[in-house]
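Box S1 | Example of a co-folding query
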Amino acid sequence: MGTASLDQQGVIVACPQCSQKNRLTYARFGHAVRCPVCKTNLSAPALPIEVDSTANFDRLIAQAPLPVVVDFWAPWCGPCRMVAPELQKVAARQAGRLLVVKVNTDELSDLGQRFGIRSIPTMAVFAGGREVGRTSGARPANDIEAFVSGSLNSEA
Ligand SMILES: [Zn+2]
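Box S1 (continued) | Returned holo structure for zinc ion
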């Protein structure tokens, strides 16, 4: 299992085969990317991305060419731990169609305040730079996918 994070220019994914870190830049998102070491296909992040700064979060929302599902969570929250593996399933199944990101509201409390997060887990869907849907509470991967597609369809 690799890891994924953000920097100023895109998503950093660790190769699931060899752990080499590679950047998928927003400008070239969706283009074929292969690990330079082992040639594994890395074109789409297939796991939740940990957000480590508000600035990188804002760049992601503004520049990501795919819809973004944001999980607002905290380490002490039991239901958040239950939903974590479900979000991993969603990230794997929707790779190339969605980005799944996790915002720790203890570490990034400014984001929690800006979006008025009152209970966790809260999941929000962003498309085209703005929020198009929100729901609270843990739920299985199938329900998360239905919530996301419903949010996106209501925008269409
Ligand atoms: Zn590799």
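The two ends are 35 Å apart (CA to CA). The pocket of zinc ion is lined by residues 15, 17-18, 20, 35, 37-38, 40 (CB under 6 Å).
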